[in-house]
Design goal:
The structure is a single chain. This protein has 183 residues and is of the alpha/beta class. The protein has 6 helices and 7 strands. The model has no long low-confidence stretch (mean pLDDT 87). It comes from Desulfomicrobium orale DSM 12838.
Length: 183
C-alpha cells in the first residue's frame, strides 16, 4: 500500500474520533505530514481526504496556497523592480502574510465553515523561502472554528517540523498524522 493511502487511513482513524469543543486554536490544527516527493500523489488523492472527512460527519473546505505568491506579487506596484533587486523583497514579505490572511478570511466567509468543519490547506511548500509555515498557521488557526488541516510536505519528529526537509525547522503543537503513525 502506498504512503499516501496509509496517510489517508491514519487521517480517517483520527478524524472519526469525536472532537473536543473546548480545544484552543493550536490544538485544533492537524498536520498531515508526507514526504515532499509524494506531493503529486497526495494532490491526486486529496479528494479521498474529503470523502473520509464527510463520512465522519464533518464539512470540508480546501484552501490552496500554491499560486498565492504569484497572484500577490503580480499585483505589487513595483514588481518588476524586485526582479532587478531581489534583496529588497524581504521588506515586502509581511504584506504577503496579510494578503494570505485576507484571502483566507474571504474564503471562510464564502464557504461558511463552522465548528464541525475541516478547513484544509494545500500548497504550503510554495511558502518556502518567503514565509514560515508556523507564521501562517498562527495567523489562520484562530480564524477556523472547526479543525485546520495542513498538508505538510516535509518531516516531523518530536513536534519538530521541517518544511521540504529544509534547514529551517520549528516546534509546533499541532496533531501530527503520518503514513506510519496509527491511531
Amino acid at each position: 500500500m502506498s504512503k499516501v493511502k496509509r496517510l489517508i487511513q491514519s487521517y480517517r482513524k483520527y478524524i472519526s474520533v469525536p472532537w473536543r469543543e473546548d480545544a484552543a486554536a493550536a490544538q485544533r490544527v492537524i498536520f498531515c505530514v508526507y514526504n515532499e516527493t509524494d506531493e503529486l500523489w497526495l494532490r491526486a488523492k486529496v479528494d479521498e481526504f474529503e470523502i473520509v472527512t464527510r463520512q465522519a460527519g464533518h464539512e470540508w473546505a480546501m484552501f490552496d496556497l500554491t499560486d498565492t505568491f504569484a497572484i500577490w506579487f503580480s499585483s505589487q506596484r513595483y514588481a518588476k523592480s524586485y526582479f532587478q533587486k531581489p534583496h529588497l523583497l524581504s521588506t515586502l514579505l509581511p504584506k504577503y502574510l496579510a494578503f494570505i490572511t485576507d484571502a483566507f478570511e474571504t474564503f471562510l466567509k464564502t464557504n461558511e465553515s463552522g465548528p464541525d468543519s475541516v478547513v484544509a490547506i494545500k500548497g504550503v511548500g510554495s511558502l518556502f523561502g518567503f514565509l514560515k509555515v508556523k507564521e501562517v498557521v498562527d495567523k489562520l488557526a484562530p480564524m477556523v472554528t472547526g479543525r485546520l488541516l495542513v498538508f505538510f510536505p516535509g518531516s516531523h519528529e518530536n513536534n519538530n517540523y521541517r518544511l521540504l526537509d529544509g534547514y529551517d525547522g520549528w516546534n509546533y503543537l499541532a496533531v501530527p498524522i503520518t503514513a506510519d503513525k496509527g491511531y
